[in-house]
C-alpha cells in the first residue's frame, strides 16, 4: 500500500475552489463564535483575578490566582447550593423521562376515546408563558405548604408538555409489530413500554434528558420566588446572592458561575451528538 | 399442538365489516395458508387468532377452549411478523430468549433452549450478534427462533417472506416447510403470494373481501377452482379467461373452433378459462378441443418454455411453446387446448360450471 499525498496541482485546484461566498460565511461564523465565547472567557478570566483586578479588562490576568476557587469551594453554602441544583436537576430529569415517556407512549400507541383531546389539552399548555403560571404555582405551593422546600422548587417541572409532545412523536415512529410481538410473547403493557419501546427511542430520551437537566440546572426565576432560606437556594440563586450583599463581588460571582458551568460542559461534551440530533428533532425549542 | 376452529368469525371496524362470519377448521399439525389480495381480511383473521384484534362476532377455539376473550399470552401461540420484529437493542441470543421472558424457566434451562433453537436454525455462530449485523434471511430465522423457543401450540406467520429477495424467499420457503415437518406444529400462514401458498400449504384458504371463497389442497384449488377469482389467483401465469356462450349443448368462443367437448348443461353467456400451460402453440392444429390462430403480440422466453401472448378474437391470451421455440412478433401461430382443459364459469355469477 502506498500513502497518497495531494500533489501541488491538486492543492492549487482546491484553493481555487474556495469561493468568496464561503469566505464571507466563515468570517460571519467566526465573528459569531467569538461573540459567543468571549463572555465565557471573561468569566474564567475574572474568576482568576483578585477583587482589585476585576475592572482590568485584560483577558489574561496579570497575576492569576486560585484564591477565589478556594474561597467559594470552602464556603459550605456554595457546596449546599451545588448539591441542591444537582439533586433538583437530576430528580426533575428522571421524572420527566419517566412520565413524559409514559404519557407520550400512551398517546402514540393506544386508541381510546378522547385521546386527541387530551393531546391538544397538553399541547395547549405550551402556549402559556411561565410568568403567567408563577402566581398560581405560588398560591398552590403556599396552600399545600410547599413553600421553601425541594418539592416546591421541583413540582412545576416534574412533567412537561414539551417532553410529552417530543416523546409522543418519537413513539409514533416505533413500528407496532415490535409491540405486538412482545404482547404475543406474554409481556404486560408496562414491561413492553419499558423493555421494548423505551430502548428504541434512546435519542429522544437523551435529548429530553439534556434539555430538562440544563433547563433545571440554570433555573433561576421560580427557585428565587419559592425559596426563602439560603440552604435551599439553587446554584444560580445562590451565586446571585453574592451581589446582594454589601458590595458586588464579581470575582466570586464569576468563580461560582465557572464552577456551575462544569456539569453543563460535561453534559455537552459527552452528549453533544444527541444534543444536535435532539435540537433537530425538537425544532427550535431548547 | 392444537386444533384451531373458526366459527362464524366476524370483525367489524366501526361500521365497516372486514371479516364476514367465516368458518374454518385447522387440524392439529396442519400447515394452512391464507391467501388473497391486499384487504381481503387474511391478516385480520390471523390477528384475531393471535389475540391482537378483538373478535366482533363468532367463536374462536384453540384446542377445545373458546379463546375469544383471552389475551395473546394466554393462547400459547407464537407469531412471526412481516418485518421480523426482532429487537434491535438485543443480541440474537437475547432475541430468541425473549420468547421465554415469562416462562419462569431457570437461566440454565433458558440458555439450553436458546442454544438448541440456534442450532436447529443454523444460528449458533451468530448468537452474540446484533440484528443490524445480520442478513434478511438470518433476521427471519431469528424471528422464527423466537417463536420456536417457546414450544407454542401453533405458529402464526404474517407474510414473513415479503421483505426477502426472490432467491432467498425460495430458500426460506423450503426451510419453513422442513421446519414444519420436523416440529409437526400447527402453522397458519398468511401471504398474498400464490407460489408460497402452493408450495408450502397442506390446505389453502382463498379469501376475498372478508369471505372465504374456497378451501382445499393446492392441487384441488388448481384443478377445481370454484370461481373465476380463485381460478385466476391460483397458478402462474394466471388462467386465461375468454368470453363465450353456450346454447343447445354447443359452446362457441369468438375466433376459435371447438369440437369433441362434453359440455355441462348451461344456456347463455359463459366464461372459458384455459391455463397457459394447457394452451399450446402447435404446428399441428386440429383435433378435439379448442383450436385457433392468432397474431403474436409478445413473447417471454423463460428457458424451459416460452410464454407467447396471442390475440384470440379480441382477447389477448397467454399460450406456451417449448423453450427453443420463440415465434416472431406479429407472426400468426396456431394454438390448441385439448379436451378437459377448458374451465367453464357462469358469466354472471363467475361460479364454476365444470370442465370441458
If you had to describe this structure to a student in words, what would you say it looks like?
The complex is a heterodimer of chains A (286) and B (356). With 286 residues, chain A is mainly alpha-helical. Chain A has 2 domains: 8-47; 68-281, MetI-like (MetI-like fold). Chain A has helices spanning 8-17, 20-47, 67-74, 76-109, 115-124, 130-144, 150-154, 161-172, 176-184, 189-200, 202-217, 221-226, 235-240, 250-281. Chain B has 356 residues and is an alpha+beta fold. Chain B has helices at 42-50, 92-98, 107-120, 136-148, 166-183, 194-200, 218-223, 228-233, and strands spanning 4-13, 16-26, 31-35, 57-62, 65-66, 77-80, 154-158, 186-191, 203-208, 211-216, 240-247, 250-253, 256-259, 268-274, 279-282, 289-301, 305-312, 315-322, 332-337, 342-346, 352-355. In chain B, the strands form 4 sheets. In chain B, strands 6-7-8-3-9-10 form a 6-stranded mixed β-sheet, with helices on both faces. In chain B, strands 13, 15, 16, 17, 18 and 19 form a 6-stranded antiparallel β-sheet that branches. A 5-stranded antiparallel β-sheet of chain B has the order 12-11-14-20-21. The chains are: A mainly alpha (286), B alpha+beta (356). The A-B interface holds A 175, 177-178, 180-187, 191, 196, 199-200 and B 50-52, 71-73, 77-79, 81-83, 85, 87-89, 98-99, 101-102, 146, 150.
Sum up the structure in keywords.
heterodimer; A: mainly alpha; 71% helix; disordered C terminus; B: alpha+beta; Rossmann fold; OB fold (Dihydrolipoamide Acetyltransferase, E2P); six-stranded mixed beta sheet; 21 strands; elongated; NA-bd_OB-fold (chain B)
Largest sheet of chain B: 6 strands, mixed
CATH architecture of the largest domain in chain B: 3-Layer(aba) Sandwich
CA-based shape of chain A: globular
Percent of residues of chain A in helical segments?
over 70%
Subcellular location (chain A): Cell membrane
GO biological process, one term (chain A): transmembrane transport
Pfam family, one (chain A): BPD_transp_1
Keywords (chain A): Cell membrane, Membrane, Transmembrane, Transmembrane helix, Transport
Amino acid at each position: 500500500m502506498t500513502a497518497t499525498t495531494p500533489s501541488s496541482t491538486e492543492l492549487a485546484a482546491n484553493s481555487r475552489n474556495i469561493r468568496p461566498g464561503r469566505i464571507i460565511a466563515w468570517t460571519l461564523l467566526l465573528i459569531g463564535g467569538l461573540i459567543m465565547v468571549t463572555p465565557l472567557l471573561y468569566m474564567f478570566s475574572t474568576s482568576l483575578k483578585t477583587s482589585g483586578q476585576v475592572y482590568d479588562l485584560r483577558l489574561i490576568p496579570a497575576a492569576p490566582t486560585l484564591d477565589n476557587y478556594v474561597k467559594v469551594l470552602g464556603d459550605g453554602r456554595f457546596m449546599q447550593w451545588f448539591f441542591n441544583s444537582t439533586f433538583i436537576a437530576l430528580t426533575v430529569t428522571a421524572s420527566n423521562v419517566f412520565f413524559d415517556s409514559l404519557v407520550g407512549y400512551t398517546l402514540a400507541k393506544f386508541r381510546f376515546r378522547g385521546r386527541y383531546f387530551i393531546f391538544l389539552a397538553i399541547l395547549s399548555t405550551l402556549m402559556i408563558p411561565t410568568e403567567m403560571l408563577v402566581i398560581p404555582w405560588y398560591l398552590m405551593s403556599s396552600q399545600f405548604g410547599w413553600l421553601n422546600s425541594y418539592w416546591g422548587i421541583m413540582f412545576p417541572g416534574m412533567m412537561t408538555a414539551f417532553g410529552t409532545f417530543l416523546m409522543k412523536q418519537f413513539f409514533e415512529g416505533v413500528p407496532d409489530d415490535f409491540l405486538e410481538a412482545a404482547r404475543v410473547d406474554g409481556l404486560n403493557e408496562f414491561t413492553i413500554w419499558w423493555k421494548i419501546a423505551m430502548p428504541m427511542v434512546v435519542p429522544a430520551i437523551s435529548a429530553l434528558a439534556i434539555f430538562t437537566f440544563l433547563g433545571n440546572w440554570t433555573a433561576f426565576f421560580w427557585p428565587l420566588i419559592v425559596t426563602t432560606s439560603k440552604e435551599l437556594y439553587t446554584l444560580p440563586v445562590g451565586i446571585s446572592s453574592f451581589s446582594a450583599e454589601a458590595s458586588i463581588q464579581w470575582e466570586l460571582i464569576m468563580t461560582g458561575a465557572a464552577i456551575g458551568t462544569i456539569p453543563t460542559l460535561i453534559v455537552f461534551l459527552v452528549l453533544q451528538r444527541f444534543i444536535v440530533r435532539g435540537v433537530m428533532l425538537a425544532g427550535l425549542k431548547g | 399442538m392444537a386444533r384451531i376452529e373458526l366459527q362464524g368469525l366476524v370483525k367489524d371496524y366501526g361500521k365497516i365489516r372486514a371479516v364476514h362470519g367465516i368458518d374454518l377448521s385447522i387440524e392439529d399439525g396442519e400447515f394452512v395458508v391464507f391467501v388473497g389480495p391486499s384487504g381481503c381480511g387474511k391478516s385480520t383473521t390471523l390477528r384475531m387468532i393471535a389475540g391482537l384484534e378483538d373478535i366482533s362476532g363468532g367463536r374462536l377455539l384453540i384446542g377445545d377452549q373458546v379463546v375469544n376473550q383471552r389475551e395473546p399470552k394466554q393462547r400459547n401461540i407464537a407469531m412471526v411478523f412481516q418485518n421480523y420484529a426482532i429487537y434491535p437493542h438485543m443480541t440474537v441470543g437475547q432475541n430468541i430468549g425473549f420468547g421465554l421472558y415469562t416462562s419462569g424457566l431457570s437461566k440454565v434451562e433458558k440458555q439450553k433452549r436458546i442454544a438448541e433453537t440456534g442450532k436447529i436454525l443454523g444460528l449458533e455462530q451468530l448468537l452474540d450478534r446484533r440484528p443490524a449485523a445480520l442478513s434478511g434471511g438470518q433476521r427471519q430465522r431469528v424471528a422464527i427462533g423466537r417463536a420456536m423457543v417457546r414450544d407454542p401450540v401453533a405458529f402464526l406467520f404474517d407474510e414473513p417472506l415479503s421483505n426477502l429477495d426472490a432467491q432467498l424467499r425460495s430458500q426460506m420457503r423450503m426451510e419453513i416447510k422442513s421446519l414444519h415437518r420436523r416440529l409437526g406444529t400447527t402453522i397458519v400462514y398468511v401471504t398474498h403470494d400464490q407460489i408460497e401458498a402452493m408450495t408450502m400449504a397442506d390446505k389453502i384458504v382463498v379469501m376475498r373481501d372478508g369471505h372465504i371463497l374456497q378451501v382445499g389442497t393446492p392441487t384441488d384449488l388448481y384443478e377445481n377452482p370454484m370461481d373465476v377469482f380463485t381460478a385466476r389467483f391460483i397458478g402462474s401465469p394466471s388462467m386465461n379467461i375468454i368470453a363465450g356462450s353456450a346454447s343447445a349443448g354447443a359452446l362457441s368462443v369468438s375466433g376459435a373452433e371447438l369440437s369433441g367437448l362434453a359440455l355441462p348443461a348451461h344456456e347463455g353467456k359463459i366464461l372459458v378459462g384455459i391455463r397457459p400451460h394447457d394452451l399450446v402453440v402447435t404446428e399441428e392444429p386440429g383435433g378435439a378441443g379448442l383450436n385457433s390462430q392468432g397474431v403474436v403480440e409478445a413473447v417471454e422466453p423463460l428457458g424451459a418454455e416460452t410464454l407467447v401472448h396471442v390475440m384470440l378474437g379480441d382477447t389477448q391470451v397467454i399460450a406456451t411453446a417449448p423453450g427453443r421455440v420463440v415465434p416472431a412478433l406479429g407472426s400468426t401461430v396456431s394454438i390448441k387446448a385439448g379436451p378437459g382443459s377448458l374451465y367453464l364459469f357462469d358469466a354472471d355469477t363467475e361460479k364454476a360450471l365444470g370442465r370441458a
